[in-house]
Amino acid sequence: MIRVFIVDDHKMVIEGMQLLLQNEDDIKVIGTALSGEIALEKIPEAAPDVVLLDINLPGINGIDTCKQLIKTNPDLKIIAISMHKESSLIKMMLSNGAKGYVLKNAGQEEVIEAIKTVFNGKMYLDQAVNDIVINSVASNAAAKANNPFPTLSRREKEVLQLILDEYTTQEIADKLFISFGTVETHRRNMLIKTGVRNTAGLVRVAFEYELHK
After folding, report:
1. Structural domain of residue 194, as residue ranges?
2. Domain count, the chain
3. Which of 49, 62, 146, 200 is most buried by a 10 A CB count?
4. DSSP per residue, the chain
5. The organism sits in which domain of life (predicted)?
6. Per-residue pLDDT tens digits of the chain, which is 213 residues long
7. For residue 118, what is the domain's CATH number?
């Protein structure tokens, strides 16, 4: 029996994964968590074989959660379940100990195959993710040498510039006509992309590498 733990900040995603796996005789969901902090608290006691881990989590993001889990349990098998397709994020997750990466639009068979593959000691990347990683190797080599961070989207740059101008989250939301939560999501994604832990770190690297331009 493969014991699976699911970490995602959306209850609907967790419930969907549970439904997807409930009829598998050799897979059992033994626990869930809505944040990285809760996952770090519950997983050591639950002792799962495989963790399905979202990257975009509130508080401690999925990359740092993965890193900490692997540090305390090197044999834990972690599969990133994410909507992010950027090669930099995929590589960061894998370099911090994940054994698999599956996009959230993957079908039932693919998720089950990923779980069984990593449980048996092999790495699993779904076809779309594998293509992204392969195609990025040559095209990003020169750019990476000059700038260690991925390019921010237009909206992320707009949010970042307003952060640098000392606007609050609500003020940014009002100025850009987007919700408070959307601003926080953009901020969280930029923290993940740049590998910093907080807004102060984001401001530092933004000026150092001119990410807002």
Report:
1. 147-209
2. 2
3. 62
4. -EEEEEE-S-HHHHHHHHHHHTT-TTEEEEEEESSHHHHHHHHHHH--SEEEE-SS-SSS-HHHHHHHHHHH-TT-EEEEEES---HHHHHHHHHTT-SEEEETT--HHHHHHHHHHHHTT--EE-HHHHHHHHHHHHHTHHHHHH-SSPPPPHHHHHHHHHHHTT--HHHHHHHHT--HHHHHHHHHHHHHHHT-SSHHHHHHHHHHHTTT-
5. Bacteria
6. 999 999 999 999 999 999 999 989 999 999 999 999 999 999 999 999 999 999 988 888 898 999 999 999 999 999 999 888 777 788 888 888 999 999 988 888 999 999 999 999 999 987 777 776 666 554 544 454 555 566 788 899 999 999 988 899 999 999 999 999 899 988 888 888 887 888 888 888 887 777 766
7. 3.40.50.2300
